[in-house]
């Protein structure tokens, strides 16, 4: 299991290939990549704040839960912090399993929990100034299915 | 003595990312009451507890959590990672 | 939408980066990669047979259905045929959407349908000779949820 | 005249990947009966229709499907891609 919280950019494809090469006997690899989306077309940048120390711990706990609940060969979580521009990759998760169902479910579980339980906060900077992204009720609701 | 940390707009309203406080409070809720009584910026930051989350020693918890033996309390809005 | 049926190897990571770079306004990208698994440790190779002409058509129909049912920015399907050795990547799907739920669901839908409705057949070669992989009831059942 | 294609173990049992046949059959089922009556290798390949799938002009269909206007019929086991 690899958990990385970093300011530096990463390439999801490169990480995916490395992850896939490292797992034996896993027929199924699922990845999720989150990209900075600029719906208004006016966002200058996104700044991600996090809680050093707690972030790594929270992500590790979430990944541990996934490894307990599903039959996984491995899991990967990468999440950036600091300033990002639209189109940049914010984070990714990857899961590997013998069967696709486990890999898909575990990746969705990781995403749902990461969204609402890992201490990251997004701020958007645009022509009208700065604003903190509000949490969505949907995201909290998504936890109920697990 | 306890370290109190603030993140995102809570940090902006309080004006500092962290501070070290002397407190008699034995629960998070009591600490919040102490802070609100102190200065307006705390009153503003803690005006709606439903909009806030709290972690004691880096574990998410509720406002009724005990502060016994706690070294670090953090206040922040609901998380928006991913 | 890109559908490729090919004998040549591909690198899932490279394809994922290219796919992600090509979609604007998509905050969420999900990928699935299928890898040749050798459970017995004795498989020499896997040979994938397909039905040229129908394969591309079937994959396109499945992808069209996904684009109709979910709000997707784009979708990618790559499937190989011919001889493969354990550890090689057999196929991949990728989906891009504004929201993670659509991207995840559409990718699972593509996989479920591709498994049971696209004309591919796997044969395994080992020390005891050749054997055709049997379809699993699970895979047929998986279609019922959509 | 119709092109008949076989895949995977159906192809192995029949012995050829495709053949062009003269047939009076108006449904897939009737074509299967014609073939089974012909030679043992067809009888063997088509012994359990529940284990087979069929496509007419590259569309999956049932054994009761009409062959009217059809150019191509394919027989194969359940697919195992992905």
Automatic annotation (TrEMBL), chains A, C:
Its EC number is 2.8.1.12. GO terms for molecular function: molybdopterin synthase activity. GO terms for biological process: Mo-molybdopterin cofactor biosynthetic process. InterPro entries: MoaE_sf (IPR036563), Mopterin_biosynth_MoaE (IPR003448). It catalyses: 2 [molybdopterin-synthase sulfur-carrier protein]-C-terminal-Gly-aminoethanethioate + cyclic pyranopterin phosphate + H2O = molybdopterin + 2 [molybdopterin-synthase sulfur-carrier protein]-C-terminal Gly-Gly + 2 H(+). Pathway: Cofactor biosynthesis; molybdopterin biosynthesis. SUPFAM superfamilies: Molybdopterin synthase subunit MoaE. It comes from the Bacteria. Pfam families: MoaE. The keyword Signal does not apply. Keywords: Molybdenum cofactor biosynthesis. CDD domains: MoaE. The keyword Nucleotide-binding does not apply. Belongs to the MoaE family. Heterotetramer of 2 MoaD subunits and 2 MoaE subunits. Also stable as homodimer. The enzyme changes between these two forms during catalysis. Converts molybdopterin precursor Z into molybdopterin. This requires the incorporation of two sulfur atoms into precursor Z to generate a dithiolene group. The sulfur is provided by MoaD. This is Molybdopterin synthase catalytic subunit. It comes from Aliiruegeria haliotis.
UniProtKB/TrEMBL annotation, chains B, D:
CDD domains: Ubl_MoaD (cd00754). It comes from the Bacteria. This is Molybdopterin synthase sulfur carrier subunit. Pfam families: ThiS. GO terms for biological process: Mo-molybdopterin cofactor biosynthetic process. The keyword Nucleotide-binding applies. InterPro entries: Beta-grasp_dom_sf, MOCS2A, Mopterin_synth/thiamin_S_b, ThiS/MoaD-like. Keywords: Nucleotide-binding. GO terms for molecular function: nucleotide binding. Belongs to the MoaD family. One of its GO terms (cellular component) is molybdopterin adenylyltransferase complex.
